[in-house]
Amino acid sequence: MKRSVPILLILAVLFLCSCFDERNQMATNRWGGSSDVLMGEIIEIIEKKDCAELRALFSGQALSEAEFLDDGMAYLFMLFDGNVVSFEQRSLPSSVRTRTSGRLTFEKSDSTYIVTTENDVYLFAFSVYFIDDEKPENIGIYRIAAIRADDEEILYPWRNWEIPGIYIPDKTAE
């Protein structure tokens, strides 16, 4: 009897581990399901002007569909003038979540931030899939838009478009 208890315990642990969805945990752990954490990471990458790191944040789906991603990264790196002093959510993120059998199986978030640098103020918006069990290639950033706060009217049409990659006001709207 004493021998069967450790064996049963080991089997129970192995069973529970097999039920664990590694993709979900990886995406949720990367940013903690938090748009603020992701925004901080994006800002660090923009300040370093690191194309490879920025590209790595995008979902496989966005990377395969985006037409002007390299141009968009160049636009982002050129747009921000000075070091970032602060960023704050403009409003609460718009999120869609789905639970199946009590477990979160889908989470998409649309967030908008006010980013202040030493020299200017910007609006920054992005859509990110934190979890997507049916289509794991969606996990990551789907789209980003950034403009000077003075040009806010440019951003409104973008919010209704499902264009992957990075929004470039003059190029993406064509």
Spell out the blueprint of helices and strands.
Blueprint lengths: L3 H15 L3 H10 L3 H14 L2 H7 L2 H6 L3 H11 L4 E6 L4 E7 L2 E15 L3 E12 L7 E9 L3 H7 L6 E3 L1 H4 L2
Parallel strand pairs: 5-6
Antiparallel strand pairs: 1-3, 2-3, 3-4, 4-5
What does this 3D model show about the protein?
There is one protein chain. This protein is an alpha+beta fold. The protein has helices at residues 4-18, 22-31, 35-48, 51-57, 60-65, 69-79, 152-158, 169-172; strands at residues 84-89, 94-100, 103-117, 121-132, 140-148, 165-167. It has a single domain, classed as Nuclear Transport Factor 2, Chain: A. Strand 5 (140-148), helix 7 and strand 6 form a beta-alpha-beta unit. The longest helix has 15 residues, at 4-18. It is globular and about 50 Å long. The model is unreliable at 11-29 (pLDDT under 50).
Count of helix runs? 8
Helix content: 40-55%
Q: Which segments are poorly predicted (pLDDT under 50) over 5 or more consecutive residues?
A: 11-29
Encode the helix/strand succession as letters.
Answer: HHHHHHEEEEEHEH
The level 1 CATH classification is: Alpha Beta
Integer count of domains: 1
Describe the sheet with the most strands. 6 strands, mixed
Q: For the residues shown, what is the average pLDDT?
A: 79
What's the shape?
globular
Keywords:
43% helix; 174 residues; globular; 8 helices; six-stranded mixed sheet; single chain; Nuclear Transport Factor 2, Chain: A; alpha+beta
